[in-house]
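Structure ticket #2291
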Amino acid sequence: MATESEAGMQQVEAELKFAIGADDPLPALGELVEVGPVHEQLLRAVYLDTQALHLVRHRITLRRREGGPDAGWHLKSPLPDGTRLEVHAPLGDGPGRLRVPQTLREELRAALGHGLPDGAEGALLPSAVLVTHRIELDLLDPAQQGVVLAQLCDDRVTALPAGETWRELEVELVDGDAELLGQIAASFEDQGVPVADHPSKLARALGDRPERAGRGEQSRVEGPAADVVLAFLGAQVAVLVAREDDLRADVPDAVHRTRVATRRLRSSLRTFRRLLDRDVTDPLREEVRWFATALGEPRDAEVVRDHLLAAVEDLPEDEVVGPVRERVRSELDRRHAAAHQALVEVLDSDRYLELVDRLLELLAAPPWRGRARRPADTVLPRLVGQAVDRARAESDVAAQAEGEQRLRLLHETRKRAKAVRYGCEALAPALGEQAAAAAQAWEQVTETLGEVQDAALAAQRLRELAGTAQEAGEPGYTYGLLAAREAARAAAAQDGEAALARALEHGWP
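Resolution: structure written out below.
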C-alpha cells in the first residue's frame, strides 16, 4: 500500500526473489493468476552507504535509481512483520545528482534511531552499482478483470565495478496478499525454481563485505589492485563530503583536513593513472586542483597568521616596537576572512556540485584498465616505485641549484615526496607494516621540507606587513627581526634533504 508523506511516496514492500539459470524458461503460473501486459526496462541503481556499510548492517538500503516507472531515490527500512517500508523522493531533490536529499536523511535518522557516525565515517558514498535489464509481467486476478495482484520481474543483473552477472526472478505484491505470494513460491519450488539464497541484489553484490565490516575489518583491503586504490580514493572523497558544513562554518582544522584529502586524491589519480582511463581521470584531477586552490588561500592565511602571532609572542617585549601584534592580527584576519568568503562562494557554485558528483561517480563506476584486476602486491609497489624515481630525479636537480631557484626546486621535490607518501598510505591496508613504515619515512621528508615553504610564505607576508606599517608611519624594526628569523627557519628546514636522502635509500621495493 502506498501513502504520501512529507518525504515523498511511502509504501510497504512485500516480495520474494528466486534463483533461475541464465537460459531457463520462466516457470508456469498455472491458474493462480493471469499474465497481463509485459514491460521492458533498463535500470541503473547506485546504492549508497558508509565505508563501513553502516546501513546494510542495519538492514537498510538507500539507492538512486534511473529508469523504469519508479525512478528516483528509494530508502528501504525493515518493519517488525518482515516487510519493508520504502520511502521515495524525486531524482532532482538532492544537492547534485548523487548526494542524498535532506528529506531522506531525516527519514534515515528515524529508521536508524540515531544519526550516522560523525565525520568521514558517516559520509554516504556509492557502495555498489546494479545495472538491470528487466522484463516485467503484470500478474492479474482471474476473478476481477484489470486488478494487478503482483508483478513478476525477470531480471538480468550486472554488478559494478566487479562486473558479476546473474539472473533472478522477483515477485512483488501489488494488490495481492501474503497467501498468494506463498502459493507462487510453492509453485516455483515444485518446478525447480527455489527462493534465492540472497535477500536482495545488493546483498549478492556486496558478498561478505558487510560481515567483514561488522568485525571491524573494513580497514584491511584484500584482492586486486583496483580494490586497494578504490578504498583509498573513497576515504578521501568521504572527507570532502563530510567536511563541507565545517568548511562553511570555518571550523578549526576543517580546511586543512579537506585540503590534504584533495592532495591525496590528485596524487593517487596520478600515481595509479596506468590503472585508470585517463580521459576520465585527467580532467577530474584538474577540477580537484581547482578546488584545492580555493582551499589553499584560507589555509595559508590561517597558518601564517597563527605562526606569526606566536612568533611575536616569543619575542622579548623590548623587541616588539610599535603596534605589531594588532597589525599582524587585523591584517591577517582580514586576509583570512576574504579567503574564507571566496571558499564559501566556491562551495555554492555549480562547478563544485558537479565536481562532487563526478567524484562520487568515479567511486560508483571507476574506469579501470590495464593491470587493475591483477593482485595488488604485484602491481601497486611498482607504480609507487616510479613515484620514488620521480622524487629522486627532482632532488638531484635541486641539489645542483642555489638561492631562490633551490628553494623553488625543493618545493617541487616536496610535491614528489608527497606522492610517494600518499602512495605508501594507499598500499598500507593491503601490504601492512612495510608500506606503513615507508609512509612514515616519507612523511618526515614532506613535513621537514614543508617548513621551507611555510617560512618563505611567512617572510612574504612580513614584507607586505612592513610595507603597510611604513605607509602608516609605524616602525619596521620588529618585522625585519621576524623576517630574519624566518630566513633562519628556512635554512634549517633544508635539513629535510637529509631525511629525503634516508627515504630514498630506503626507497620502495
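Closing remark: The longest strand covers residues 34-49.
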